[in-house]
Design brief:
734 residues, Maltoporin, Chain A, 5-stranded mixed sheet, globular
């Protein structure tokens, strides 16, 4: 069963209870017309003046729209599509998390193992502000910043005194969210602690399907429905139970009004399991069949067992450390941090588990912990019409993977392991592979420079670049009982230039054009993945080259008086040496640099303040892409976000909607499981503020109870979209 770390949690809650509760409010809304300060170019600038599509989500926006996880918060902005599943993946201009650099307080969150980001492990209740920068940003941020940068800033205390908050919500599917925060400042010392938890038991993940078949010789029949590819659905994994928790603290010291040192620590845990699995297959007498061999219409066989319907049990946990020094007087910034995914993996049931005994039994286990650390230092100078930024960065990633083919209890992470060695059949000479370990490392050294040059009263140029030296090394793979395979190291250097021009017609109108070259180093998983199993063979490719992407963008930012704000841009990106998973034969896979990939489109966003109490927004993205000349079906052609908010004390009502066009591949039948048809979701929330400290919110998601299917791009799992759900939230602050 899932459980909290009781001693740690109890101690933290005791502190919070004794101190009281409250929050640090950031009152600036997403679409303010007063000029938001952002740090997209590693220096504080007005949002209006930045020559890029930069969008901001604040704490207030998260609260008023009943946001339940960080992926949902990011999906508010133009050009972003986020899956509505419990996993919550994010796609920005056609790029997944593997191609987007995600920072929390300056610390990278992309895992060293596969470059992905688990959004459930970033506590949304502790977010102060999110900056989303679209387009290639490698000139300042290095690899992974091909699609853009998502910079998440958490809460700190700048005012004297003690402040805190308590947030508790209950909703459909037994979903419970809790958030507690305490922040304080006295003289030169600031401090804070937080705890957040999320539990839900309502998600259906995906069905089990089989190849085309008619029946077994014994007359077993199945497949009451089919998926989009025509395969019969033979069962369901049931409900997905999820528990996530986050807790941590920060402490800061002000040497003077300009110099500040801050340390932050976050611990995150994320567990999942499936319950109430079902088999739709029936024997001749009508009883449930959990174990049979189905005969396909083409004569092929498909064997299923209880394990086909159970899914996996998963565990993930990380510690994040971040130490930051800021000197506003001397324009110096330094950051060092580490993200340690010390637990990351899953267990799977064996085919022999007994459905009559709660599916107890043995199984297998795969563990792939990873660790990343980085250091960044930069300084700015003001020299006449030039503002120079120069810095250097260091970083290292490492991962290890262990696969155990035999564990005593598939429901337990700490289950006893029975070692399985490689065996060879004496008659046939065929190998049977057992336990495996593999891993690898990479490291980066980089220097970067940027010149913000105001060469004319209305013209500003940003000219810069970054030189990265990248090395992958210590790659290995070994099966128990065989010699270790060591892979040769490789290294390369990349220069990422960028130039942007901004023309300020006046204080309310800016036009910009930019070009940049970005690179994305191969993920360690792509380089060193190696396995031989019944599921297929994966061959390593340590010779993979990085992807390089050229990005062009043309944009306009316009304010009409004090009530209307418009932003529009067009973009084009071309990637060379695109990394793709290919088939060597019917069962062997490997990653290789294969051809090119292209994306292009345009974005437009409009915000209207009708009155002091009423505002509305709409943003639309048209985009398309190809990989080696073939359509990229993962990119929705049309994205539409729209909403309106009415706020007049004590009531606030918010209505917002999201449309995602279809991403159904050729040959798939619409309206079936796995068919990613177009869908439109509308959400409604209303808040009543009893006083400045206490408020209640009632929210309805998927207001029209839309039925839809979708896919988590990060793990290629299809899921059934959630229907109409309800959430009641109480917030208290002081």
């Amino acid at each position: 069963m899932m459980s909290f770390k009781s001693k740690e949690i109890t101690a933290l809650l005791a502190v919070l209870a004794l101190a009281g509760t409250g929050t640090v409010h950031a009152e600036t809304p997403v679409y303010t017309l007063k000029g938001i300060t952002v740090t997209a170019n590693r220096q504080a600038e007005r949002l209006q003046d930045v020559p890029a599509n930069v969008q901001v989500v604040t704490e207030k926006d998260i609260q008023k729209r009943n946001v339940q996880n960080t992926a949902q918060a990011i999906s508010m902005v133009t050009g972003v599509s986020a899956s509505q599943s419990v996993e919550g993946t994010v796609n920005l201009r056609g790029y997944s998390s593997k191609n987007i650099l995600v920072l929390v307080d300056g610390q990278a969150m992309n895992t060293a193992w596969n470059g992905d980001v688990d959004w459930n492990m970033i506590p949304v209740e502790n977010i102060r502000k999110i900056e989303v920068v679209s387009g290639g940003q490698s000139a300042l941020y290095g690899g992974r910043a091909v699609g853009g940068v998502i910079n998440i800033m958490t809460k700190t205390q700048k005012q004297e005194g003690l402040h805190g908050s308590t947030t508790v919500s209950y909703g459909s599917h037994g979903t419970v969210n809790q958030g507690y925060a305490l922040n304080g400042k006295k003289d030169k010392v600031s401090f804070g602690a937080f705890y957040n938890s999320h539990i839900t038991n309502g998600w259906k993940d995906y069905y089990a399907t089989a190849s085309h078949f008619s029946k077994t010789p014994e007359g077993v029949v199945s497949g009451y429905e089919t998926d989009a590819e025509g395969n019969p659905i033979i069962g369901s994994r049931g409900k997905k139970y999820v528990m996530s928790e986050n807790y941590g603290f920060h402490i800061g010291y002000d040497f003077n009004e300009d110099q500040r040192l801050t340390y932050k620590f976050t611990r995150a845990n994320y567990d999942w399991e499936y319950k109430d699995s079902e088999s739709y297959a029936r024997k001749a007498d009508g009883s449930t069949s959990w174990r049979e061999t189905l005969i396909g219409t083409n004569g092929s066989e498909y064997t299923y067992s209880p394990s086909s319907f159970l899914g996996t049990r998963g565990w993930r946990a990380y510690n994040m450390h971040s130490l930051t020094y800021n000197d506003q007087k001397n324009k110096i910034h330094a950051h060092i941090g580490m993200t340690d995914y010390f637990k990351d993996g899953y267990t799977s049931p064996a085919a022999s588990v007994d459905p009559e005994k709660n599916f107890d039994g043995g199984g297998s286990k795969t563990s792939y912990p990873s660790k990343s650390w980085d250091f960044d230092f930069n300084k700015r100078w003001k020299l006449g019409t030039h503002t120079l930024l120069a810095g250097f960065a260091l970083g290292q990633d490492k991962f290890s993977e262990k696969s155990y083919t035999s564990i005593s209890d598939w429901k337990s992470w700490n289950s006893r392991v029975t070692p399985k060695y490689v065996t060879i059949d004496k008659k046939t000479g065929k190998k049977t592979y057992g336990d495996q370990s593999l891993g690898g490392k990479d490291k980066t050294f980089a220097v970067y420079v940027q010149d913000k040059w105001q060469f004319a009263p209305k013209w500003t140029a940003y000219i810069g670049g970054r030189y990265d030296h990248y090395k992958k090394y210590d790659g290995y793979a070994q099966y128990l009982g065989e010699e270790k395979n060591s892979f040769a190291f490789d290294s390369y250097s990349k220069f990422s230039p960028k130039i942007s021009l901004d023309y300020a017609f006046n204080d309310n109108t800016n036009a910009y054009v930019s070009y940049g070259k970005s690179f994305n180093p191969p993920i360690l998983y792509q380089v060193y993945r190696y396995s031989n199993s019944t599921r297929g063979t994966y061959r390593p490719n340590p010779d993979l080259d990085p992807e390089t992407t050229d990005t062009w963008e043309l944009g306009l930012k316009k304010k009409f008086g004090t009530k209307t704000e418009l932003h529009a841009d067009v973009f084009y990106a071309k990637t060379d040496d695109y990394i793709k998973l290919n088939k060597e034969d019917s069962s062997a896979y490997f990653y290789e640099n294969a051809g090119d990939a292209k994306t292009h489109g345009f974005e437009i966003s409009l915000t209207q303040h009708h009155s002091d109490a009423w505002s509305s927004y709409v943003n639309y993205t048209w985009q398309t892409g190809k990989i080696e000349g073939e359509k990229n079906y993962d990119i929705p052609r049309h994205l539409l976000h729209l909403g309106t908010t009415y706020s007049k004390n004590p009531w606030t009502v918010n209505l917002d909607g999201m449309f995602i066009s279809d991403r159904t591949e050729a040959g798939e039948e619409s309206g079936h499981f796995k068919a990613r048809d177009a869908y439109f979701l509308m959400n409604l929330s209303t808040n009543y503020q009893f006083n400045k400290n206490f408020g209640l919110q009632f929210a309805v998601n998927n207001l029209f109870d839309r039925e839809y299917y979708d896919e988590d791009i990060s793990n290629n799992h299809y899921y059934i979209g959630d229907g109409r759900t309800y959430t009641l939230t109480a917030r208290y602050s002081f």
